[in-house]
Design brief:
Length: about 325
């Protein structure tokens, strides 16, 4: 059924890799990954992959430098083991926010990381909900860019929310396109939070554009929740304008620093995220729903392996 297809997982998210393998009905390839006493990463493939179509599953989330370096070493190991093709499956692509020169004398780290992955030997990349879509163009190999929006919409549709009671609230101007896609799928109205940034890590929410949202069910969508400052600020704006219930949704639950505490304390009915990153310890919130992207990634892997079109999965 899958001639010479091999799945290999790094250590960043073995649970997701296991789900993808189960969806495809394949075992994960045996690989030994460990750390030397000085922190360097050791990789050894424990099976023959010569001539195989290899898919390396590794989110480059926190600790980002470690998971990224591990991915590069895994790619190099597969290349030197004579894999026929290597696809880096990166559900969450780290360093994506550094995608342009927004100040003097700063790097474009997303481009640097793209160069590193390509130079290491990846023949193509499969990823989800990049922070900036133009990052696809940073790679000199094919990039298949999937979206979790339809999976999140399917969850909200299962709640039976009446379209006339829904307001999709964009947390900032940059998320308007994403929010409009959800409006077209779920119905309801669109509103926008006029976000003003006070520093590189802090934002201030000022005005609400659109609405009204009084007595409505408010849905907020973003590509990621990092420190949760922006999304919780938008939640507070929605509460101040009389929202009846507030849901927060994002593809990537980075949840670093004060994010878990902020989300616990905010007036949020449900935080809906995908499992593109592992959610352990304090990141497991009592009001959190996790939807799996394993079937989506598994179907993309199947189609790539068979050289079939995956454009139908982009929407």
């Amino acid at each position: 059924m899958y001639d010479h297809l091999t799945l290999i997982s790094g250590r960043s998210h073995p649970a997701l890799a296991g789900e993808i393998a189960e969806h495809l009905g394949l075992p994960l390839g045996a690989v030994g990954v460990s750390d030397f006493p000085d922190g360097e990463i050791s990789v050894q493939l424990d099976h023959n992959i010569r001539g195989c179509d290899v898919f390396l599953i590794q989110s480059t989330g926190p600790p980002t430098n470690d998971t990224l370096m591990e991915l590069l070493i895994l790619i190099d190991a597969c290349r030197r083991a004579s894999a026929a093709r290597i696809t880096a499956v990166i559900p969450y692509f780290g360093y994506a926010r550094q995608d342009r020169k927004d100040a003097g004398r700063v790097p474009i780290t997303a481009k640097l990381v793209a160069n590193l992955i390509t130079k290491a030997g990846a023949d193509r990349v499969l990823t989800m909900d990049l922070h900036a879509a133009q990052i696809q163009g940073f790679f000199d190999v094919p990039v298949d860019h999937l979206y979790a929006g339809p999976i999140l919409d399917e969850y909200f549709q299962s709640l039976g929310l009446a379209p006339e009671e829904i307001v999709v609230l964009s947390p900032d101007e940059g998320s308007i396109k994403r929010s409009l896609k959800h409006v077209r799928q779920l119905g309801g109205a669109l509103a926008i939070v006029d976000k003003r940034r006070s520093s590189a890590t802090e934002t201030e929410q000022a005005n609400l554009i659109g609405g009204p949202i009084e007595g409505k069910t408010v849905l907020l969508f973003d590509d990621m929740i990092s420190t949760a400052g922006s999304i919780v600020g938008a939640v507070e704006v929605a509460q101040a304008h009389g929202a009846a219930e507030i849901y927060v949704s994002a593809t990537h639950a980075v949840l670093c620093g004060p994010a878990p505490q902020r989300l616990r304390e905010a007036p949020i009915k449900d935080v809906v995220v995908t499992n593109s990153l592992p959610l352990t310890g304090e990141k497991q919130l009592p009001n959190m729903t996790v939807v799996s992207v394993a079937p989506l990634l598994g179907e993309a892997i199947r189609r790539i392996h068979r050289n079939e079109s995956i454009s139908g999965l982009f929407d």
